[in-house]
Each structure stands twice: as C-alpha cells, then as structure tokens.
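Subject: mismatched residue count in predicted assembly?

I count 726 residues in my input, but I want to confirm that the predicted structure covers every chain. Input:
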Amino acid sequence: MRKGVRYQRWFTPWVLVIPALAWLLVFNLWPSVNTVILSFTNARPIGGGSFVGLKNFETLLHDEQLRYALLNSVIYMVVCLPFLTIFPLLLAVLVEKKLPGITFFRTAFYTPVVASAVVVALIWQWILDDRGLVNGLAEKLGVISGPLPFLSDQWLLLLSAISLTIWKGLGYYMIIYLAALGNVGRELHEAAAVDGASPLRRFIHVTIPGVRGTMVLISILISVSALRVFSELFILSGGKGGPGGRDNSVVMLIQQYSQGFEGNLGYASALSIVLFFVTVVPMLVLARLNRKAADA
Amino acid sequence: MRSRRLIPVAALAVAAITLAGCGLGSSDDTSSDSKPTVDANTKVTGEVSLQTWALKPKFTSYVEGVVKAFEAKYPGTKVTWLDQPGDGYDKKVLSQASAGQLPDVVNLPPDFALPLAKQNLLLDVAAADPKLSEEYVEGGIQAYQYQGQNGTFGYPWYLNTDIDYWNSAKFTAVGLDAKNPPKTFDELLAAAKVMHDKSGGKEYLMSRLPGIGDFTNAGVKVLSDDGKTFTFNTPEAVALLEKYRAAYQAGYLPRDILTQEYLGNSKLFTQGKVAWTTGGGNAIQDFQKDNPSLKGKVVASPALDTPPLYVQGLSVSAKTKNQAAAIALARFVTNAENQAAFAKIVNIFPSTKASGGDPYFSKSDGTPESDAKVLAFASLAKAKSLQPAVISGATNDFINQQISLAIAGKVTSKAALDAAVAKANQLLTQ
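Triage response: the counts match. Full output below for your records.
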C-alpha cells in the first residue's frame, strides 16, 4: 500500500505537467528556437533553403530600412514612455474621487481601449487625411492655408501614430493605476494632511512611492509595446510605411519580408532576433532601476 | 562554474546550427517533377480536386454546372470543388504547397504560379497537351512561361485589361472635354495642370504614382533577357520619374498618394475626389453602384499607351495522383464554351481563340457599361503583361518606396532607381 502511494507520487506530477510542458515546447519554445535556426538560412515559404551563416546579420548591418525602423521604434518609446507613465496616473487620481457622475468619465476615458486598434487607426486616418476633419476645420477657421501633411510627411506621420497610441493607451493604464491607488493607504494621506502637506506634496511623497512598482511595470509594458508597434503605423501609412518606407517599424519590416511566395523567412527571422534584443534591453534597464530604487 | 553554465547554451547553439544545415531542403533541387507522365489520350477517370478563388456564393451554380458537365463527359470521375475566400488566398496556397497538399487543379495567377513552378510543384501542361497553343491566345500562354523555367505552367482561364475612366462633370467644370480625353502621358500631365489651376488647386486628375508597368510603357527595359538582373535604372525611367516629381511638387497630384495603396486611385475616383482612374471593362458598374451620383458622368476611353494584360489560369499540381483527370479538368473548365459562359456572367474576357468572334464581347448595346466592355475587349488585342512575374511582393514594395522618395524630393530620381534596382537584384538572387 505504502509502495503504491510512493509510486504514484513519482509519476503523478509528471502526468499533470506533461500537457503543459508539451504545449510549452511545441508552441512557445520550438517557434523561438526555429526562428534562431531560420535566421542562419535563406529559407523561403516553399522549397526550404540552405545554411548561409551570418549573411543575414551582415545584411542587417547595411539595411537602411532597418535603421529607420529602429530610429522610429526608439522615438516611439522615448515619447510614449513619459506620456503614458505620467498622464494615466494623473487621470487615475482625478477619476478616483467619489463624485457624482465620475463613472461616466471613467468609462469615457476607457472607451478607446475597447475599440479595436484597426478601427481606431482607420478613424484617425479619416480625421488626419489631407481632406479630413482636422485639416478641413483648420482651413475653415483660417489657421492654415493648405492642409498639413499628417499622413504623407515622414515625421508628422510618426507623430500622428504616437498621438494615436497615447490616446488609446491612456484609459488602459489609468485602470491599472486605479487598482494600484486602491492599495495606497488612506491613513498615509490623512497623516500627511495632518502634518500640513499640500495636495501636490502628498501626491509626490505619498501617492508616487505607493504606486512605484506599478509605474515600473507600466513603463516596461509601454516600452515593449512601443518597440513592437505595428497597427497604428501600418494603417495610418496605408500599409506602406510612409513616404519611402521611412515610417516602418521593425515589426512592419518583418511582415514585409516574410509575406508572399517569395518571402525571405531567413532575413525576417534575423530581424525578429534584432527586435527581441532591442525589446529586452529597456526591460532589463527598467527592472534594474527599480531594484536599485527599492534597495535605496 | 561559469563554463558549466555555458555548456547547455553551447549545446543549444550547436544543435540549432546543425539543424539549420540539415533540416532544410536545398533550393537548387533540379528534379523534373514538372514533366507529365500521361498524355492527352490517357483514359480519364477517378477523383480529382479543383480549387477556385472566391467564386462562392456568386458563381456557385456556374461552377457546379461545369463540374457536373465534366463528370457527365467523363463517366467514373468525381470532382471535389474547393473555393477559398478572396483575402489571404496567397497564404492559403502557400500553406497547401508547403504541406504538399496542393489541390489537383488550382486557380493561380502567373505570379503565384511562378514560385511553385520553380519548386517543381506544377505540371508543364504544354508537354501533356500539344493543342494548348492552338486553342488559347498567345498572351495568356506566355503569362505561364517563365524565363529560366522550361514549360507552360497553367491553362489561361480568363483575361482582363484596364481602360481609362474620366469624370465628365469635373472635366466640364474646368473647361476640358471628357469626350476628347488625354491619349498620352504628356497630355495627361497637361490636363492635370489645367484641372489644378482652373479649380484653384481643389481638384485633381491624377492620383497614382508610377509603377513598373509605367516604366515598361515608357520603353524602359525592366528585366534583362536572361531574367537574372533588373535594368530599369535608365535615363528614360529617370525622365518619367522627373515628370511625376515635377507634377507632384506643383500640386497636380494629391499628397497622400505617397502613402496610398495602388487601389487608392479607383477609391478616390469612386468618391468623386479625382477625375481619372484606370479599371477593368466592368469597373464602370462598380463606380456607379458605390457612388450613384457618378451615374451618367463616367466616360471610358482606351488606356494610355499599351494596355496591361491580367491573366488568371488553372494550374495542375505536379503531385496529383490523377494526372489524366486533372489535366482534362483544367482543359475542360477553360475551354471556349465554358469560358464564354463564365465571361457573360462575370464580365471578364475569355482566353480561347474561338471566343474572339463572339458578338457579346465585340458589339455594344449602346449603354456606357456595354461600351466600356467592348472597349476593354478590343484593347486585349494589344494588351501585354507589363510587370514581370519575378517581381515579388517585397521587391514591389521596395521599388514603390524608392519611387515615393523620388517623387517627394527626398532623393534624386537616379539615386532612387539605382537603389531600387540594387535591392531588387539582391532579392532576386537570394
């Protein structure tokens, strides 16, 4: 009897783990390993390919399109990071208050999050078009003499996409901050108020330290999604990556290279590896900064 | 300790590189699977599959009728008809080809068929069917013959071309005559200037960037004779780009064409935002259906220069287990009788020589729709494939990006064309 129990103890965990392990190996680990393998080949969607060593990575070094894509990704991250870390927090502090009708504002701020990225980007395309709402209104008001090239200028297009991301992300991160604010002890605020701290000082010295962990988490999420941006730039640029493809993101480049019968899967895989490292760096930096701040 | 940690990483790297070396087939495989093992006289029987592209539900009864007629003509055969949705058809075919599960007979345009032919996944139908060149128009057959590939890799099914459409109301408003529209590219540019100037910069005539087809039309040799290098960075191509660039800088083209897809041209025309577009013989019906206010305002005329030739065809999988039935089915679906019947319900044009004399295509009933159809059919006689099938999606994207840069004035036309040719050659040889 005791032997039987011991026997079951030995294999029962494995039986329970095997489905999850198989899933992990087949759908998580293998695609990643396969991407690494493919990056050393000139594989096509059909007909396979052959081992080309580091050729794809050498080509990457001279790829002007990649340079623009990386620059765009970094600009995206640098602009989105402060905006989407700070403004949702301010928004959360505002809508946290229990006032009549505040639910309406919470819902209104959250609405863009619910809408599909594709739908939102299409709406923005109509708004920012040469004959769209913004240009039409501005021209009627006499603010501008000719339409601003929101969708046909390299930098304005990037800025438009960033604005869209910020607009759409505000509500999402606001909700996360709302949950975090609930954990900041009310007694701390009350004690600070008794000590004569102004609302601004209470925000800086009580609220921010209370949600610091959440801020780091949000910063990491923003960095990762900014570096992997796709739908906003894809749709606003009509899938073309802006004039001359200079508004491509790395993900758009991967998509362009891998699509179709003649898709270059090897090069697209090499690009994916570059994207992986580019994404990991800010995550590590932010995590390290957080650890240092926590130790201090 | 550190070296111990490195062992699994090194093992993984070695395994990955080893797998990379041995796990992938060589692209230089030269086996001749494309040659048929049966001829046209082999008895036709057994099961065969047919894959079409977005014909359900609009043409279900037509295809089912053709299938039934085939089964009746060849007793003992059974056709399984598969219809794939319009979006993502290339991806579907790609996954079927990679999995070795291509249907026996499959609808593939020439640019889809080329990569499959290169991998010996399609049958050389001309080798099994000596009457091919007698029965189908030359342009249709040529579309399935590729430089460097020996054979014909599809039966031409139906054809189409583009003609020009003009918005007569916009023409009249600026003092132009839509019944006497531009006939050359230079006349088009001149009319674009008039439309821009007379409307105070509010109206546009042209709304598309030049593409490879425009280079071909301008007399530029796009590809070398051996099909191994691109050659479109010539002074003629530079001159064409310069004309577009000057027109763009002068405001004769909408700015957002730099980021619009090619179809932006007809979308803007349908929305009444531009006065010229190109489209097939039946496009006039779509314009008027999508924007009824265009009714009576659309005037058709022949395409500028050489009209483009668009071909659809049926290819036979080299891996089919029933070559005789597959070849017979592809031939049956594309025969003159079935093509003519199809063309009458879908507004495309048959690719068989026998259909050329059908008055349905060559005589108008006087309506603008019928006039456009007859005009397009007449244009087919001199239509040519203006873009080589070797231009892949990625190559096309890069070329268009460079053209955009040149038009926007970010780089010189010569530099853009040189960069486009260099990249296209690199992608061609990969």
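The CA atoms of residues 50 and 187 of chain B lie 46 Å apart. Marking this ticket as 'not a bug'.
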